[in-house]
Specification:
about 350 residues; alpha/beta; Endonuclease III, domain 1; Nucleotidyltransferase, domain 5; 3 domains; 5-stranded mixed beta sheet; 4-stranded mixed beta sheet; 15 helices; 11 strands; binds zinc ion
Length: about 350
Amino acid sequence: MTAIIHCLHVWRHYLIGKSFVVKTDNVAASYFASQSKLSTKQARWQDFLAEFDMTIEYRPGRHNAVVDALSRKRQLAALEEEEDQATRSRSQVQMSEEMQNKIKESVETDTLVQNIVKHIKEGKTRKFFLRDGFLFFGNRLYVPKSSGLKSHLLKECHDSPWAGHPGRHRSLALLERGLFWEKMQEDVEECVHTCIICQQDKSDTQRQGALLQPLPIPERPWMSVSMDFITQLPQVHGYNGIMVVVDHFSKYVVFVPIKIPCEAERTAELFFKNIVKYWGIPLSIVSDRDPRFTGRFWTTLFKLVRTELLMSSSYHPQTDGQTERINALLEDYLRHYVTVDQKN
Ligand SMILES: [Zn+2]
């Protein structure tokens, strides 16, 4: 029944709203719907099953031979076992005589291996077994630590032209085909991560970042400023936003309460009243506003200073860390002094 519930969870989007038949070789499961006494878990299941339009049909196991062959684990199938043994002997043959001798030697001397061998003899483990002086874990040859072959085998399955510097998954898969040692995965990961050839040659899938374009460094205060708006604040005295202007040179900050939406013309007026009046027109303004806004902003500002000259004030359509940092600071600051309902 757990299997049925699991499958329904996985394929819910395919099955919902359709009528379907669940075939099972479990007799008890086929009576689930008509069961009168339910445990808490079964009650939960039945609640979940209620949304499906399904019937459970019992099919005895003996009629189901083909399905079994397809779904049972291959390690358990007798037919596959023989094939595994064939591959095992093949992988053994591929190893050089020298390596085989090394492994055999270390099997005899390694204390850990001797411990395992002791367990095998006492019948305490079924995962390991001895054959022809080699220790096997399942169908994989055990490589003892003391043999010193690990790095050699790692190299074989990663560095050799036969392997071709694959990633960690493939390297591990190649090793796992016939070999076993503890923490093999960690060793493979370390090997791949530290492989100098992989570092140099593998293409980077991430997009390369563009070069940083730093703003010109101002020579005096109020030569270059940045301007930003904090919006979506609760309304207080008719204002619901703050214009933040930061001087690049001195980091002096001016906060101006504004009404959102704040038109370019109005912004220019406020800028004139709060900045230009005290420190003159800056040479450049950094802001993340769109060009139309800034165009109107400049025109209005020049109208206010009553000049016909087109001043060469530049405008950087970037947002800069400076104002964003100040914004965060100001928001933090305000948060300390507002009531919970943000009405003051
Ligand atoms: Zn590599």
